Amino acid sequence: xxxxxxxxxxxxxxxxxxxxxAFLWGAVGIVCAACTSARGGxxxxxxxxxxxxxxxxxxxxxxxxxxxxxxxxxxxxxxxxVSVAVLRRRELxxxxxxxxxxxxxxxTPDSVFEAASLSKPLFAYAVLKLVEQGKMELDTPIMxxxxxxxxxxxxxxxxxxxxxxxxxxRLKAVTVRMALNHTTGLPNWSSGALFFNNSPGEKWEYSxxxxxxxxxAVEAITQQNLSQFMEQQIFKPLGMKHSAYAIKPEIERFIxxxxxxxxxxxPAFPFRVPVAAFTLYTNAHDYGLFLSALxxxxxxxxxxxxxxxxxxxxxxxxxxxxxxxxxxxENVFLWHWxxxxxYRSFVMVSPATGDGFVMFSNSDxxxxxxxxxxxxxxxxxxxxxxxxxxxxxxxxxxxxxFDICFSL
Length: 408
Known about the structure:
Layout: H1 28-37, H2 69-76, E1 82-88, E2 91-97, E3 113-114, H3 119-132, E4 151-153, E5 163-165, H4 176-180, H5 208-222, H6 226-238, H7 249-252, E6 281-282, H8 284-295, H9 298-305, E7 309-312, E8 317-319, E9 324-327, E10 332-340, E11 343-349, E12 356-361, H10 370-377, H11 393-402
Antiparallel strand pairs: 1-2, 1-12, 3-6, 4-5, 7-8, 8-9, 9-10, 10-11, 11-12
């Protein structure tokens, strides 16, 4: 996620991004307490065609195109299973794997992980393709596509979740663009009736609820549920054979179980209801195919970054359509993280050079590998790794409130 480049290509899209940052302040006593404890704790264009089988990639036993030190970091943190796809010049170059913590837990190229919020950029790509095809418009209110209203589900991942019919008139002001760039005013999640934290379009606030609202509109337009839509419009055209937004027998045997911080297994919770915000199952190879397609799609790349929303002026961070944006003197990077219980993931790409990587892990500690990998692929400083949402609990509070950000 980074700076210096080999000058293969020059930055050719948004030269500057607007910025704004609001600081939150708390009691100084929290700082003292934290200082001793915080560290511990394609659609292919228009007429999609089947892609050919990808060329043979580097395996874990071949010479690796990136420094192997990240694997030592994974070992030090007790992160057993990690799979990384590396892209160079818009092509999937290699799949890098950790050997696993025991002989019977080795990571393989077929290993499938919960992608968590890396579900969002993939869904956003599909939505932008619908826009490209004239089936949706970015600045049209989402409720235009839901004439019968919106039935919000409090636990959207459960088939028998309670629900409420949303009556707040502000819902009519929420557009497709607002859902993609997290300015709906909705919270990340609501376990009861849906509510607004802010007025639509007022400011950036990360919201899974906004993505679910947009999902319902996509399902209404296409007359398909999310699983069917993504399979037909994205997975099949791009050759993503080990990906799904709800568990299915074809991939179930490849799923790597998630782990607690102490390395003990987390109870399995298979997602049987597809949710655009967080239920994607995939592997590094499949997600790498998506990134390759994205990096070759100049029209979509320009649309993603065309109207950035300020997130942190201090960190040079803003948000585009489906992606976080980090700007430095030479480049603009697209990035996102994923955080499900027992799984962490991270992706970062450079539209200018076509380089990038995606990382999946089966550990609550998995983001510890993100910054080392980012610096290997994109040498230089990347302040996005100081973003508070990449941290959990007290570490999150300290980083957001007092800019005391320990290493991931």
